[in-house]
Amino acid sequence: MAEIPSVDGDITPVALRVLNAARPARQSLAIPALPAALTAERLELGEAGGRVSYYRSCPSHPSALTPLLLVHSVNAAGSAAEVAPLFEHYRATRPVYALDLPGFGLSSRTDRAYTPRLMTDALLAVIAQMRLDHGCSAVDVLGVSLAAEYAARAQREAPGSVRRLVLVSPTGFSGSKRRYGPPGSTLGLAWLYNTFTWPFWADGIYRNLTRPGVIRYFLQRTWGAKVIDEALWRYAVLTARQPGARHAPFYFVSAYLFSNDINTLYEAIDCPVWVCMATRGDFTDYRGRTTVASRPNWQFHAVDGGALPYFEDLTSFTSALSLFLDAV
Question: How far is CA 162 from the centre of its chain?
Answer without folding.
Answer: 17
